[in-house]
Amino acid sequence: MVSVRGVRRSFGTGAATVHALQDVTFDVAAGTMVALVGRSGSGKTTLLNVVGGLDKPDAGSVVVDGTEVTTLDEDGLSRLRRESVSYVFQTFGLIPVLSAAENIGVPLRMARTPVAERERRVALLLDLVGLSEHAEQRPGELSGGQQQRVAVARALAASPRLLVADEPTGQLDPETGLEIMALLRGVVESEGVTALVATHDPVMMALADRVVRISDGRTTG
Predict the structure, then answer these.
(1) Which InterPro entries match (predicted)?
(2) Cα 79-80-84 angle, rounded to 5 deg
(3) How many C-beta neighbours within 10 Å does residue 108 have?
(4) Residue 145 gets which letter from DSSP?
């Protein structure tokens, strides 16, 4: 599903240059969950951004679901993010004025999915993340864990092939974080999605099919 070869990414110039990624090479098999593990500043977020098409590397190649991401123009990248790749961040990123159901349905509205199909998909996802009874509540009326569940459901709305999650439990207490990690493990199996998850949580590492460690911009595992 994901093939990264010889990826490099630096920021700044001269003595101030930061080598965020250095000759990174690894693969993610379809239908698996891979935990990307490393301390703060190790390059995790940069690597996720490059894989998901939010940033371009200085060198190397990234292939996602058969598409060479690093050669896409803006239209191609938009299509990739709309059809193949979805994101979950630790800040939730929900729209405050919309209900849980409406937030989940946003990607489907953008894709102009017919109303009946959109409503069916939203209902299915609300049930999947255990929030059917909270469909009409807005983010401010939900707990942090519930908001992250909505964010996961929204990321799955358009049936992506790859789910990229950057520290999805970073703002949650340990018990709630465990629930979200178990949910992500479950959606990999029930939705057939592939997941690349940046984390430092040992429980997430245990739930993953594989652990890739990153340190000073270099990966192992």
Answers:
(1) AAA+_ATPase, ABC_transporter-like_ATP-bd, ABC_transporter-like_CS, ABC_transpr_LolD-like, MacB-like_ATP-bd, P-loop_NTPase
(2) 120
(3) 21
(4) H
Domains: count for the chain: 2
Q: Are 65 and 29 in contact (CB under 8 A)?
A: no
Pairing of strands 210-215, 33-37: parallel
The answer to whether the pTM exceeds 0.70 is yes
Q: What is the DSSP string of 55-87?
A: S--SEEEEEETTEEGGG--HHHHHHHHHHTEEE
CA distance 189 to 182: 11
Rg (Cα) of the chain, in Å, rounded? 17
Q: What is the mean pLDDT of residues 150-176?
A: 90
Q: Note whether 26 and 78 are same-domain residues.
A: yes
> Would you call 121 helix, strand, or coil by DSSP?
helix
Same structural domain for residues 59 and 71? yes
Q: Domain check: are 24 and 103 in the same one? A: no
Each residue of 7-39: pLDDT tens digit?
999 999 888 899 999 999 999 999 999 999 998
**Cα(94)–Cα(154) distance, rounded to whole angstroms?**
9
Strands (E), 149-209: 162-166, 194-199
CATH number of domain containing 53: 3.40.50.300
Contacts of 110 (CB under 8 A, 6+ apart): 82
Last residue of a domain, one of 119, 138, 159: 159
Range of the domain at 104: 94-159
Task: Using a pLDDT cut of 70, give the percent of the chain over it.
Answer: 100
Q: What is the DSSP letter of 52?
A: T
What band does 204 get if pLDDT is binned at 50, 70 and 90?
confident
Same domain as 22, residue 73? yes
